[in-house]
Specification:
Layout: H1 12-22, H2 32-44, E1 48-51, E2 57-61, E3 73-78, E4 100-102, E5 106-109, H3 116-130, E6 139-144, H4 152-156, E7 166-169, E8 177-182, E9 184-193, E10 196-198, E11 202-209, E12 214-215, H5 227-239, E13 245-251, E14 257-258, E15 262-268, H6 273-290, E16 299-305, E17 310-312, H7 314-326, E18 330-334, E19 342-354, E20 357-366, H8 369-386, E21 389-396, H9 406-419, E22 424-428, H10 434-440, E23 445-448, E24 453-454, E25 462-464, H11 465-481
Length: 482
């Protein structure tokens, strides 16, 4: 990426910083370099900063002339991105820059996620810190790490150093929508002990691929199948017809991304191979017919393979498939108060067998704390039925709606002034760091917003350049109004 591809496009300085960010690998748990880059920008600008042990960074910028007595505003976003790529992509997320592409309308990364979620927030903040002409109150720019894997950075951050009581979070993906409440959640994990021994027979690889996938919060109710659950149904239906042993199963890479691809390997007696193929043909045809209408590119198939070494015992095979089948997944309850809002859900995002155990990792979400607790209890209970242990990490509270919000009212007023219409003010099912911050800072007034992005957390991710420019201008107008 020695040649800059975003030069000449607007918003100029945010896109300059976005391209710089994309040169630095910054998937979750790999944020030291991007954290140091933000520190270097702050240092070169002569601004005070704090970098903590988790690699979170806070940069403090005094108010512009005439705004010294105005209340401090916190501008917040996260550094890490969901690092997903196609099977064909040569990108190594630990070492390689992203391969940015643009047609002048959208911005994307070839073969990988773009990281517009939430690189655009980082870029906006760095452009603000750099500017000597933008009108703004005192700013506390907060850059957190590992949001995508449980909001670990926000959880670790010492917020006692922050003076602001209004927080603008730039981690939303729809222009013209102001988010003012979100679900709480947790990362849940089931671990099932397994037994294996030597195996002989006919091997088959089974595949589920081509599903849409997407964000397990904002897109959990959009009719998108989970490849891990589709594979569970395939394996279960076949096991009801003939005995076989599972060699392995794996699917999904992130607990908060709806998995698109799952594969499994089984072994069965040589004299049952022809029968198994006939059964699989019928099962696959029915599964494809039963998929949600949106899954037009779905593929389910099998192929013979060599099978040497070890496989799970028959008992372990039945436990794995039973657990895969019986764990809840998807939307569990809709809100009675807000039409169309998912209230409670979970997503089996990661499934994998390893020597001696199976692990399943879920993203659990709910805007009602009691429902979240009940769903976790149900997950534990199903796991215990099969002998699986439960563990939990990254729990975060719901961000509750504020009836009185100066920040929300100001952002609505400015939006109407700029565009002649009111923005949509809504609650969402996805988790946002506003929940963590509002839980730590009494009376914190939060709003989340952002430019148009499509298909985040997938290799089809796109950022609208026109929307990014309008959103930048809107942010500047809001800061001036505050």
């Amino acid at each position: 990426m020695s040649e800059r591809i975003l030069d000449g496009l607007k918003p100029e300085r945010p896109l300059y910083y976005f391209e710089e960010i994309c040169k630095i690998p910054h998937g979750s748990r790999n944020t030291k370099r991007i954290s140091d880059y933000i520190v270097s920008v702050a240092s070169n600008l002569g601004l005070r900063y704090i970098q903590d042990e988790a690699n979170n960074v806070i940069v403090f910028k005094p108010a512009s002339c005439g705004y010294e007595d105005h209340p401090t505003v916190i501008l917040q976003g996260h550094m890490d991105m969901v690092a997903e790529k196609t099977k064909e992509s040569p990108i190594d997320f630990l070492t390689d820059p992203l391969d940015l592409r643009t047609d002048g309308v959208d911005l994307w990364a070839e073969g990988t996620t773009l990281g517009g979620d939430d690189g655009i927030a980082v870029a906006y903040a760095l452009a603000l810190l750099e500017s000597e002409t933008i009108a703004h109150p005192p700013l506390e720019c907060v850059f957190t790490v590992d949001e995508e894997i449980g909001m670990d950075g926000a959880v670790a951050l010492d917020t006692s150093v922050l003076q602001g009581r209004m927080l603008i979070n730039a981690d939303s993906e729809d222009e013209g929508i102001l988010t003012v409440s979100c679900a709480g959640g947790a990362t849940s994990r089931l671990t099932l002990p397994l037994r294996s021994d030597k195996a002989e027979g006919k091997g088959l690889h089974l595949y589920v691929d081509g599903l849409i996938g997407g964000h397990s919060g904002t897109e959990i109710n959009k009719g998108r199948a989970n490849s891990n659950k589709v594979m569970a149904e395939l394996l279960d239906k076949l096991l009801r017809k003939l005995p076989y042993r599972l060699v392995y199963v794996r699917g999904g890479q992130k607990d908060n991304a709806i998995p698109r691809y799952t594969m499994a390997k089984i072994i069965l007696a040589e004299n049952r191979a022809e029968e198994a193929c006939k059964d699989l043909d019928a099962i696959i045809a029915q599964l494809l017919a039963d998929l949600p209408a949106a899954e037009v590119r779905a593929k389910i198939w099998y192929e013979p393979c060599a099978c040497r070494g070890h496989a799970l015992s028959y008992a372990s095979t039945r436990k794995v498939i039973g657990l895969m089948r019986d764990v809840p997944n998807g939307v569990q309850a809709m809100s009675r108060d807000i039409p169309g809002l998912v209230q409670t859900s979970l997503n089996m995002g990661i499934l994998k067998t390893e020597p001696g155990e199976l692990t399943m990792t879920f993203s659990v979400r709910s805007s009602v704390n009691e429902e979240k607790a009940a769903l976790i209890a149900k997950l534990k209970s199903v796991g215990e039925t099969y002998g699986a242990a439960y563990a939990e990490s990254g729990a975060y509270p719901a961000w509750e709606y504020r009836k009185n919000s100066k920040l929300r009212d100001t952002m609505v007023r400015v939006f109407h002034k700029l565009y002649g219409r009111d923005p949509v003010v809504e609650a969402i099912h996805a988790g946002l760091e506003c929940g963590i911050f509002s839980g730590k800072i009494p009376d914190l007034d939060c709003v989340s917003f952002g430019p148009d992005m499509r298909d985040i957390h997938t290799t089809r991710e796109r950022l609208s350049l026109a929307s990014a420019e309008r959103t930048w201008e809107y942010l500047l107008a809001v800061l001036e109004a505050l």
